[in-house]
Amino acid sequence: MSRDKASTMDTDLQKVFGNPVPELYEAAAGHDAPPALAHALELRSFLALTEEQVTRVRDRVHADMDPDLDMDELSADKLRFDAQWLEAALEARDGYRAALGELLRTMPPPAQQARPVRTAQLRATATLPPSAAPAPQRAGAAQARRL
C-alpha cells in the first residue's frame, strides 16, 4: 500500500512498537508477528494514502486560487467539487487516525506484549453407561422389519 509515504502517526507507531516504520513492515512479514502490528500497519497505510489525497486537493485549490490567475478561469463548480472531495478525504483521514490511535492506546506496552503460545489441545473423553450404549447386533441375525 503506502509503505514509502509518511503519515502523521509514524512517530506514534515507532513509540509503541519500538522500531522505525520500514522495520515494522519487515517484522510484520514474519510468521510470529503480532496481529496488532499487521492491523496497525494496514491502518497506517490507509492513513498515508488518505493524507496524500488531502494534500493533493489542498494543493489543487491553492493553485486554482493563485492571485496571478485570470479571474475568468475561476470555476465555482470546480471549487465546490474540490470542497466535497476535501471534506470526504478529511473525514476518512480523521477516521483512520482515530482507529489507529485507539489501537495503539489499547495495546499493552512492548515489554508486556506476549508472543502467542501454543498449547496442547485437550481432548475430552467420556464413557457411556452400559444402559445407554447401543446393543451390538449379532452376526447373521435378520433385522426386524418396521411397520
Helix and strand topology:
Layout: H1 10-17, H2 21-28, H3 35-64, H4 76-106
Helix pairs in contact: 3-4
Number-wise, the strands total 0
Sheet/helix structural class: mainly alpha
- The shape is elongated
Helix content: 40-55%
N→C terminal distance: 69 Å
Q: With helices defined by DSSP (H or I, 4 residues minimum), what is the helix count?
A: 4
Cα gyration radius (Å): 30 Å
Order of helices and strands: HHHH
Instruction: Specify the oligomeric state.
Output: single chain
State the low-pLDDT regions, or none. none
Could you report the average pLDDT, rounded to the nearest whole number?
82
Give the structure's gist in a few sentences.
With 147 residues, this protein is mainly α. The protein has helices at 10-17, 21-28, 35-64, 76-106.
Features of the shown structure:
147 residues; mainly alpha; 4 helices; 0% strand
Give an overview of the whole structure:
It is built from four helices and no strands. The chain has helices spanning 10-17, 21-28, 35-64, 76-106. It is mainly alpha-helical and 147 residues long. Helix 3 (35-64) packs antiparallel against helix 4. The longest helix has 31 residues, at 76-106. Helices cover 52% and strands 0% of the residues.
